[in-house]
Amino acid sequence: MVKNIKNEAKIKLRVDDTVIVNSGVDAGKKGKILKVLKADNKVVVQGVNVRTKHTKPRRQGEQGGIVKVESPIHVSKVNYYCDKCGKGVKLGVQVKDGKKIRVCRKCNTEIK
Ligand SMILES: [Zn+2]
Predict the structure, then answer these.
(1) CATH code, 18-86
(2) What does the pLDDT read at residue 61?
(3) Could you tell me which residues come within 8 angstroms of residue 89 by beta carbon, excluding any fewer than 6 positions away?
(4) How far is it, in rounded angstroms, from Cα 50 to Cα 7?
(5) 29, 46, 48, 32: CA torsion to nearest 10
(6) 80: CA distance to ligand 1 center in Å?
(7) 105: CA distance to ligand 1 center in Å?
(8) In terms of pTM, does the model score above 0.90?
(9) Residue 112 DSSP class
(10) CB count, 10 Å around CB of 46?
């Protein structure tokens, strides 16, 4: 029997987290997470991986033009940006008062 092992690396990032891009053309860019795509292990980050879409006016009075849309990027390309550390960090999970919390692995600051 073949066991179907799904690679379920849990995404620790959440919407509204600030992340910094660590590779690719957007390396060094910071932005807020707009969307987390768990199934794809991808996130959509404000101002990162922006693609330009050309749109045609569909209805009367509507303007066609260029729309900028953020495309999802793989989570491995971003790191959580810790204000205290002033850089991209890895997140850890700790248990506090019976609840799982996310912490910065460098400075141990709890992340809300
Ligand atoms: Zn930190």
Answers:
(1) 2.30.30.30
(2) 79
(3) 79, 80, 81, 82, 104, 105, 106, 107
(4) 28
(5) 40
(6) 9
(7) 7
(8) no
(9) -
(10) 15
CA of 89 to the centre of ligand 1 (A): 7
Q: How far is the CA of 109 from the centre of ligand 1 (A)?
A: 6
Distance 102 CA to ligand 1 centre (A): 11
Which of 104, 107, 103 minimizes the C-alpha distance to 94? 103
Listed residues: CB within 5 A of ion ligand 1:
82, 84-85, 104, 106-107
* Range with lowest mean pLDDT among 5-14, 49-58, 74-83: 5-14
| Structure-block tokens of residue 27 | 């390396």
Q: Distance (Å, rounded) from C-alpha 31 to C-alpha 76?
A: 15
Cα(24) to centroid of ligand 1, in Å? 23
